[in-house]
Write a structure and sequence with these properties.
311 residues, alpha/beta, Rossmann fold, Alpha-Beta Plaits, 2 domains, four-stranded antiparallel beta sheet, binds adenosine-5'-triphosphate
């Protein structure tokens, strides 16, 4: 068994003048759920395509369980299943028929019933593909990837368009795949999905990996401060609070005689007496800054919303 499911070593992919992937190095261990995050155009899909053997890197090395996706395409195909963002499906077949046909392509496929159950598609089992809703079709696409019981399951934005229940089913199916010994690489724009589901995440920006690690690790490294949310009367002067050295960022929205304040600080305990004392703050809530703040910070958007509100 190969402990490393995926290795990217200084991988570059150019399309003419455009450098889509700019020297990424990354390993994904067998049995991990790894999330690739990044703004539109960051290079996530291109990276995924190189490991599926769909694109040849301009330079650098890609390995999947030790195999070269271009030179050893057949070996890679046996162990990897890729669910694309969109795919042509056989429209006149039912969900069950389609999955049975798909299963017949593989030597030891997953049970069709278990895939249907895991993805919450029981009610659509006898519905023709052409009649499925967007979210059901999306889950069926994931099902076609799960049916081969791949050692590496690759999902490109799998939860796009899913309602909260369907998304939960999808997450459960992905966790079950990992618990059965599988590895998962997924791209996502949902910070919640990354925090809830992924063992580790890599954040891409302009073709580079700008942060990589466990979600909690990234939060404590890039956004260790806490967020405080509270309400004060509109006549309270916030300038003294804003000027304090332990207030990193402060935004304020006035409405109906009240001001809703959000501030970031590394030392909430020192601020509590000030808020509850002279300022008379109410409805005080404390939150971790979270992966969203990490994302905005490492992709260069850290203070965009702050500037908009205060300028
Ligand atoms: P999204 O979140 O929007 O799906 P992404 O992170 O997956 O984005 P990619 O699709 O990998 O990003 O695109 C990275 C860059 O490469 C973009 O600038 C894109 O315009 C460019 N690109 C992607 N595919 C091609 C192609 N076939 N030919 C030329 N340029 C391409």
């Amino acid at each position: 068994m190969h402990d490393l499911a995926v290795v990217f070593d200084d991988v570059v992919k150019r399309y003419g003048e455009v450098t889509a992937v700019d020297g990424i190095s990354l390993t994904i261990a067998s049995g991990e759920v790894f999330g690739l995050l990044g703004p539109n155009g960051a290079g996530k899909t291109t990276s995924i395509e190189t490991l599926a053997g769909l694109r040849r890197p301009t330079s650098g090395t890609v390995r999947v369980f030790g195999f070269d996706p271009i030179e050893q395409r057949d070996q890679v195909r046996r162990v990897v299943a890729v669910q694309p963002q969109h795919a042509a499906l056989f429209e006149q077949q039912t969900v069950e028929e389609l999955l049975r046909v798909w299963a017949s392509f593989y030597r030891s496929p997953a049970g069709v019933d278990s895939v249907i159950r895991r993805l919450g598609l029981g009610d659509s089992r006898r519905v023709r593909v052409a009649k499925l809703s967007g979210g059901q079709r999306q889950r069926l696409l994931v099902g076609t990837a799960l049916i081969s019981r791949p050692r590496l399951l690759v999902l490109d934005e799998p939860s796009t368009g899913l309602d909260p229940n369907a998304r939960q089913d999808l997450w459960d199916a992905i966790r079950a795949h990992r618990d059965d010994g599988g590895t998962v690489l997924l791209s996502t724009h949902s910070m919640e999905e990354a925090e809830q589901l992924c063992d580790r995440v890599g954040i891409m920006h302009q073709g580079k990996i700008v942060a990589c690690g466990m979600p909690a690790e990234l939060v404590s490294r890039f956004a260790p401060e806490q967020e405080l949310h509270f309400t004060v009367s509109a006549d309270r002067d916030l300038e003294g609070l804003r000027a304090r050295a332990d207030v990193i960022e402060l935004t304020a929205h006035a409405r109906d005689g009240q001001t809703r304040v959000r501030l970031r600080t590394a030392d909430p305990d020192a601020l509590f007496p000030v808020l509850t004392g002279a300022l008379g703050a109410r409805q005080i809530q404390t939150r971790d800054a979270g992966l969203e703040t990490v994302f905005r910070r490492v992709t260069g958007r850290a203070f965009a919303d702050f500037d908009e509100v205060t300028s």
